[in-house]
Amino acid sequence: MSAGFKFTRALEEQIRHYASFPQTGVSLQQMVQFGSTPSQGVLFKASQFISEELPIRLAHRVKELDELPNQLNEMPSIIKVKNWYAESFQELTSLPKPNLPDDIRKTLKANGNGAPRMADNTPNLIEQETNSSGVSTPRRKSVPLSKRYYGPVQDINWPPEVLSYNEKITKTLTTIKRRHDPLVTTVAQGVLEYKRLRQRSQIDTSIQSFLDRFYMSRIGIRMLIGQHIALNTEPPRPDYVGIICTQTNLKQIAQDAIDNARFICEDHYGLFDAPKVQLICPDELNFMYVPGHLSHMLFEVLKNSLRAVVETHGVDSESFPPIKIIVAEGKEDITIKISDEGGGIPRSAMPLVFTYMYTTAGEQSLDPDFAKSDFKAPMAGFGYGLPLSRLYARYFGGDLKLISMEGYGTDVYLHLNRLSTSREPLP
Ligand code: ADP
Ligand code: MG
Questions:
Q1: Which residue, 164, 296, 367, 372, shows the most beta carbons closer than 10 Å to its own?
Q2: Domain extent listing, the chain
Q3: ipTM of the modeled complex
Q4: What's the pTM?
Q5: How far apart are CA 32 and CA 42, in angstroms?
Q6: Residue-wise pLDDT tens digits, 295-352
Q7: From 3.40.50.1980, 3.40.50.300, 3.30.565.10, 2.30.30.40, which CATH number describes the 244-417 domain?
Q8: Catalytic residue at 113?
């Protein structure tokens, strides 16, 4: 937290107010349609959208952290996280809006050239209203978001106010993204503090569902921010719109995940050769996705399978049964099945595998250095691999399921929705 930040009464009230507005979900397809011609005018509209939507989402999180039950809201790490959200909220809401000439306002309002429109069923948004003493308060505005901010934009010579506003908000977003990097580990730390205080070994269902909502919201916020920063700062790449790849090649991402997971496995167990992974996947399977999300899920699932195979058959085993990845392409879904012969999971443990911090890899402390970066798990031990991967899958309308045959092995089904029209789940 920067030295200047203070959680004032006024800020608290402003946050409560913003939290009373509904969040607005965006689909993968909308993000792609919108960002495919990122002129300064389009970027300006995106800036306006994010400068209203993000404070609403942040405010919801502050409120939720505040209202956590059983003193979980009083844990030092949880308060720390809450302050990050409040500070980011304050930074965004105190960015001055640009003063635009009338003709530019009109152009921004006009629905000119044929860029695609976003769906119109978005909830009301807020508009700043400044009173005579210069205090601005948001109020409801019943114009669909799509009309106001995601409509098409004519390409003209934008005045310097527009360009500098785009730059300013991108800079602010970069600061915010960095501030929240260690969120997953810090919240995990907060839950550990709570478990210690309450002398619990497992987390209860209310905390589990809080964490699901909280981390899901983080995925959405980071998606919006990441997309915005990429559109504003990165040179256009073929097949990419921001951080979304319209031609994500599944085979290539899977092969990279296999190589990385096997490398970590060899390193961790001191193996010369990790269990083999067979990949059955059409070469030309390309679809629209965020490659980073896909790698994350495959990497986590593969590490689990590798660990199970190595530990079931013994590190000194002459050979290991291979792990099989089969990719199927349907009209609705692309499904990836990862099958291992790693002994499976007892049925009694099945309800636990998707709970945060459930692991059979032994107690692991949260290294403070480790917490500085974003959450990157080693071989195993944090119990975040499966629950977080499932959230990534669900974020774009997919799912992750696990079926085990105790005494034999495990099948993980990763379903990815290829229609990409489903809206973000907004907790
Ligand atoms: P971690 O790997 O850090 O323990 P995960 O969320 O990835 O956390 O997995 C949770 C637990 O689920 C693992 O510790 C393990 O006991 C069990 N598990 C997951 N995948 C498999 C698998 N393929 N075979 C056997 N057990 C598994
Ligand atoms: Mg794991």
A1: 296
A2: 11-101+147-241, 244-417
A3: 0.99
A4: 0.87
A5: 12
A6: 999 999 999 999 999 999 999 999 999 999 999 999 999 999 999 999 999 999 999 9
A7: 3.30.565.10
A8: no
